[in-house]
Amino acid sequence: MKTTILRIGILPPFPNWPTWAVGTTVPSAPLPAPVLSTPLPDRDRLALANPGSTLHLTDRGVHSPEVKALQQCLKELGFHPGGVDGYFGPETTVSVQLFQQARGLLPTGFIDARTRTELDRPVGELPATAWRPSVDVTKLDFPLTADQIADAVGAPRRNVRANWPLLQEACARLGVTDRQALLVLVAISLRESGMRPILEYASGEAYEGRVRGLGNDRPGDGPRYKGRGYIQLTGRANYRHYGQKLGFPLEKDPDLALRGDVAALVAVQYWQDRGVVSAARRGDWRSANRAVAGDDTGYTVMMKNLARLQAAIARQGR
């Protein structure tokens, strides 16, 4: 039975993309390189589709021998502790992000041309520095490291290591730097997606024809514009709005909302637009939660995360 995978073309340099979206800088504290217990896999097994394709997170049930080869490579390189099943799911996305960080690449979670090149690079040619945010994130009033965030709330360290730097960069760029707001954003992102970009499990058929609020006015819009990212951006109108606001062609290519860097910007901008940030700054936790959930759904989980993060900060005397 022939297996079909989701493919999109290599992302072109759209003229209105911010230049920092493809930049890297020298880190102040490089991530440790993984311990390699086995040699690199046979490169003949890494024919990850044609050179003009991009692999990324797909729906459940979509399996590919190309993704299986990728997972095996990442496992042998020490980045993928999960299974080798050919499904490009959230765990594989995080593995790709951690590999990209270690190789000095923007941790998008997408296997593009530059990432393929790094997968073929000999182990002895590892870069001297890992990727870090390309803006000054020290202005963020949030003293916890990725590991401290994960340990405080019981989240997998690898998820937070891969994605907290992207959220830090987005917050710095969009002016969300105060502790109250950052506490809520971290607490909500951990609750909503485990602090990693995800694709909605449902088919999206439930959104078909929903013009009001979602702008799904064409056949197929429900599945095409179902939830993606840290916050599950949903609906043609929302993809259009945030694409135009941030300079990414999300309406044309909704899968871009799964890219780590894009997902982070969408999430922070959404939180600002919806009043989450302003409510957090007032200490109005319930209103902050309602701005995301529409009601009190998830409020208890958010508050539990919030309390644990505050306790971790207090232990530092900060």
Give an overview of the whole structure:
The longest helix is centred in the middle third of the chain and has 18 residues, at 157-174. Residues 1-51 have low confidence and may be disordered. It is globular and about 50 Å long. Helices cover 42% and strands 3% of the residues. The strands form two sheets. It has a two-stranded antiparallel sheet. It has helices spanning 65-76, 90-102, 113-119, 146-153, 157-174, 179-193, 221-224, 236-246, 260-273, 276-281, 285-293, 299-315; strands spanning 8-9, 53-54, 198-199, 228-229. By secondary structure, the protein is an all-alpha fold.
Short structural description:
The chain is mainly alpha-helical and 318 residues long. It has helices at 65-76, 90-102, 113-119, 146-153, 157-174, 179-193, 221-224, 236-246, 260-273, 276-281, 285-293, 299-315; strands spanning 8-9, 53-54, 198-199, 228-229.
